[in-house]
Design a protein that fits this description.
Elements (H helix, E strand, L loop, with lengths): L9 H9 L6 H17 L7 H14 L10 H22 L10 H11 L1 H4 L4 H18 L2 H12 L4 H8 L3 H23 L1
Length: 195
């Protein structure tokens, strides 16, 4: 007979997992898989999102003894998800294989056209948003992981400075300074492409 665990709290399930009933960890995966996948898919290439979500749950399982029940499990898991994505970009940043100016001709053409007012009106709104997102993601890939993380949290996802500081484990002052510097780096990078 299969037991219904839906009424058990996260803390109760975690306690049982830590006491040897590791199969119950699957209940936590079921509860939080959509949240983790949502966080991950906003931060890394979509074709790698599922694999990265799996990595988040593996990291969380390995760190489960460090979970402090004073905050919700979902918040703790979200921090692990953001940091896992941060690590992904840190690793990728260190092993860059493509040159900084690697926009393909289609994206370069779009960017030039976007800057000219007369060309703006000829683009379909949906296609324009898609292309703009691709260019921003391309530019974000060129930033170091800390710059990328702070820009994504504060400017793309709308977290407050305090919330971003909590997720990243930084002070609010560091988040403000890093966000300012990161915006300038991104702006300069996009200006180089345009010139």
């Amino acid at each position: 007979m299969i037991e219904d665990r839906s009424k058990e709290s996260d803390e109760e399930i975690i306690s049982q997992v830590l006491n040897g009933n590791v199969d119950l960890y699957e209940e936590l995966i079921d509860r939080y898989s959509e949240i983790v996948l949502g966080i991950v898919s906003k931060r890394i290439p979509l074709d790698q999102a599922e694999e990265m979500a799996h990595e988040v749950f593996v990291r969380a399982y390995r760190s489960l003894q460090g979970f402090n029940a004073s905050s919700p499990f979902g918040n703790w898991l979200s921090k692990i998800a953001v940091r896992t994505c941060h690590d992904y970009w840190r690793k990728r940043y260190r092993s860059k294989e493509e040159p900084v100016n690697s926009l393909d001709p289609e994206h370069r053409e779009w960017l030039d056209g976007f800057m000219a007012e007369s060309a703006r009106n000829s683009f379909d709104r949906a296609e324009s948003k898609k292309t703009a997102r691709e260019i921003i993601l391309w530019a974000l890939e060129k930033l170091d992981p800390g710059d990328r993380a702070v820009l994504e949290l504060v400017h793309l996802e709308g977290y407050s400075v305090k919330e971003a500081a909590g997720i990243l484990g930084w002070s609010s002052g560091k988040v403000k300074i890093r966000a300012f510097r990161s915006r300038n780096k991104l702006r300069k990078m996009l200006e180089k492409i345009i010139d």
